C-alpha cells in the first residue's frame, strides 16, 4: 500500500505493565496505533511492553510506521539489560539515557502525545509534553495516569489549553490531529 507523505509524529505514552489498566487496554491501545497509521501519521513510543507495544502492534497491522525510543544505548542492552521487545518497531533509536532521558527525547520528537492508562513514567512524559506546550490527547476510561490528569491539572492550577479528551480512540486521534494542525498553522503566522 503506497502512502502519501507522513503528516505528523504522534507519541503513544502509556503503562508498560497493564494490570491496573481497564480490561480492554490491549484492544484500545492497538486501535490507537491503527488510527495513527490510518491517518498517515508516524507512531512514536518508548519501545517497551504494554500500551506502547500494543499500539505498535496495531500500527503494524495496517502497514504504518512505528519508531521506538529506547532507554538503552544499544540493541544488546535494550534486549538483555532492559528486557524490551524489538519486533514491532521499524526503527529503534537507542538513546542511552535511561528512562528519564528517553522520555524527554521521545516526547520532544513528537508533534503530539496520546496518554493511554499509564504509571509514573507516563506522568513524566505527560508533564514534559504539557510544559513544552505539545498537543496532548487523553484516552479517558483507560485507567491509571490518563484518568488522573484532569485532577492533577485542577490541583496544579494550570490551564488545559492544548489537551483533548475522548473515550473513543478514533475520535481522540482525529481531535489530536486537529489540535496539531492548529499548532502548525500558528507556527507560520
Q: Name the beta content range.
A: 15-25%
- How many domain units? 1
Distance between the termini: 35 Å
Strand order of the largest sheet: 4-3-2-1-5-6-7
As a whole number of angstroms, the C-alpha radius of gyration is 15 Å
CATH topology: Rossmann fold
Low-confidence stretches: none
Helix content: 40-55%
**CATH architecture title:** 3-Layer(aba) Sandwich
N-to-C SSE string, H for helix and E for strand? EHEHEHEHEHEHEH
Net shape? globular
**Which secondary-structure class do the elements indicate?**
alpha/beta
Number of helical regions = 7
Average residue-wise pLDDT: 95
Could you characterize what this model shows?
This protein starts with 8 loop residues before the first strand and ends with a helix. The protein is an alpha/beta fold and 189 residues long. α1 crosses α2, α1 (25-38) crosses α7 and α4 (98-109) packs across α5 (120-131). The model has no long low-confidence stretch (mean pLDDT 95). α1 (25-38) links the parallel β1 (9-14) and β2. It is globular and about 40 Å long. It has a single domain (9-187), classed as Rossmann fold. It has a 7-stranded parallel sheet with strand order 4-3-2-1-5-6-7, with helices on both faces. It has helices at residues 25-38, 51-61, 75-81, 98-109, 120-131, 149-156, 169-187, and strands at 9-14, 42-45, 66-70, 91-94, 112-116, 136-139, 163-166. 44% of the residues lie in helices and 17% in strands.
